[in-house]
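Researcher: Next sequence.
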Amino acid sequence: MNDKAAFAEAKKAHLETLKQYVPVVDRVHGGSHPEFHEVRSLFETLAKKMKTAGADRPDLDAEFSRLREVTDGYTVPEDVCESYEAVYTMLADLDKAYRA
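Model: Next structure:
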């Protein structure tokens, strides 16, 4: 599978679920994990760029770089729910496919 196909598959697999989970996780955990507010903002930028790009590959280097920094490499905090963990897992998968 080529790089573009890997990213397209990851996008197809995760984008809609992330659109549902990210706002909820932000609302539930944002108070005790304020870094998630930035995760949400970065995700919203990613989603917008992906939508605007359509079938083309958008430039998401800055957003994924910042996500890796904010999330400490998508390290899941110990005191969060499965949805929070799922968000980090899906974002990490998208990031990995993007950089493939």
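Model: The radius of gyration is 13 Å. The chain has one domain: 3-99.
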